[in-house]
Amino acid sequence: MSRRSESSRDRTFLVIALTLLIASAMPAASAVVSETLYIRSGQLSTVDGRTLPALCYTSTATGSISPMGPALTLTAGDVLSLTVHNQDDAAHGFEIVGVGGGNSSVSPWSAQTFEFEFPEPGTWLYRDPVGYPLNAGLGLAGAVEVLDPASGYDDEFLWLLSEHSEDWMTAHERGDPVDTSVYRPNYFTINGASGGDIGLDPRAHLVGHVGDRLLIRVVNGGLQLHSLHFHGYHVQVIARNGIDLAAPIEKDTIAIPTGQTAEFVLEPHQPGVFPVHDHVVLSVTANGVYPMGMIVFTEIQP
Amino acid sequence: MRISEYARRLVSIAAAVIAFTAATAALAADVHIYMTARMMGSMTLSDGRTVATWGFRLGSGMGGAPQVPGPVLQVNQGDHVYIHFQNFSPMDHTIHLHGLDVDQANDGVPQTSFAVPMMGSYTYEFIAPHAGSYNYHCHVDTILHLQMGMYGAINVLPPDGSNHAWDGGPAFDLERTWVTAELDLVWNQQQSAADFTVYEPDYFLVNGRDGGDVHADPYTSFGLVGADTALLRLSNMGYLPVRYDFAALWTEVVASDGRPLPESFDADGLVVAPGERYDVLVRAAAPGVASVGLEYLDLYDGTVRGAASVPVIVSGVPTDVNDFLAGALTVSAGSPSPFAGSVSFAITMQAPGSVVIGVFDVRGRRVREFEMQVESGMIVTWDGRDEDGREAPNGVYHVRFHSGSDVVTRKVLHVR
Fold it and tell me: CA of B35 to nearest chain A CA: how many angstroms apart?
């Protein structure tokens, strides 16, 4: 749920009122989690050593930016109190797809605080709804994961999928109009990294043991369809877009349309090192070079 | 594909089917499959253009051209499968057993397993774990090798080899395996030098055929008689999602990626994303020719980038026992007529058999003759050309269909 008001005074009152309301309504375990995000432009480094101008949510007001927004990690029952500082010259917003914020707008060089309730565990996408799909496509997207304290998984992983269109990014930086009817991304990332670099991220590179019960949250923060294929294993698809499926579906290839999320449970029956990659093989490239794109590995010990 | 190619293809497939049938007759047998990789293939598209292909073929010798897609491999659940693979080509290749959850050594990924070099060989080995639909493909420089045609299907039947979607699952009378893909002419011509950031496919393939040639492929089109149930094994080895329209048929999606679905659903509007497989039961809703539509969708905005259609011939529920006499042959009127490019006929037979098709001009001179195996129904297309490939002159032609004691003649008008 998103709550927003137009003036800072109204907003302050609303936040206080909401906080009191929610505090009285929620179970005792609920907590208000305060987070801050900054909307900033900056240069991204690609796997092949180039830089691209991007717009991103970051957790710091200065310093280098990551290709994708930081993951917001909460626990079921939490209330997220999120302050978004817009450090760009254009208006931007903050939407958690399927939860709220679709009409949000934060004026240039100002800040707003949003509240979202998460009574249930799940996985969602956040992105900029302003000027969609341009701003989201320039990098303004990230993942929300709401943990279930009683889940008992041996480990949890998070894969935020995205594409990056050099055409869009360079046109936008020059101040040229971007033709959003044509989208030809040439870099493809998981958690902001490509190819072998993805393995450096412990939330992406999946390590476990035979017989483990491992949760993988996948968020499509890009504008295209991705179709993740597991080598070596089938997984149980247990949820889509933050909602549990009536019954798990056992798959080795799972299509995740733009803006959507999915949760998989992997219970490895065999040891080994296997890739997981987009079977839209176009996305397994970096500026056309295969296999430097959307490919991550599972590493299962006996 | 030109009609004259049918005979050659039928022979090679029939030989393969016999080999597999013999190999898989026993329960949980050792099954030995011999496959080679070849890069000197070619494929003729519906507009007559010939493109280069790389691919797989059955056998162990150096000779012969690859098939696109590769041969449909069929085994039973529990079989110990050995694929004896020889690489008779100048590049590295592998066989990745897509969806079969094989061990790392047999996974066919160069980065985690190994590639089979030029003139090298390897025996991929696995135990078929679950009845259902799978693929195989080369996993070396996949973006190019897949596009060039190095893919195929593996179908796993229940342990007893019966016509069921899985052990204890729904039964079927006939099955078809549809593998979709696309073909980008620039990639096909430039190969390793192509710019893989720009994908503008020109052809939209079902089992390696496009356009009107999809209709003419007996391994794609099929017929339903009475209460027949067909099992369609849909898979996507291309880079675009494919949306299916089964408007005029009764359908039920029962399995995906080699596993029964917890709840089946209607297949109308089913989207098969790259790498996915869906098993769909199909039954007749009404007599006639029901086209299944395929739309290849843009990854970004979902617009239709290309299309294909597959005819399904549905004959009525029989009311007269004579309708079920073996060999009974029905043939639709030619469509379109008059025709400029090619003309198609829907054939149904009550029992599998061969049909000799002769095309005669008004003076009774034979222009063209070919023979086809018909399982229960198919679309036959005459491309308006004579035995030498020359376009036949304008005029009336009699097309005679001859099977056993049945003869049916249809008249068509050719207007160039």
Answer: 22
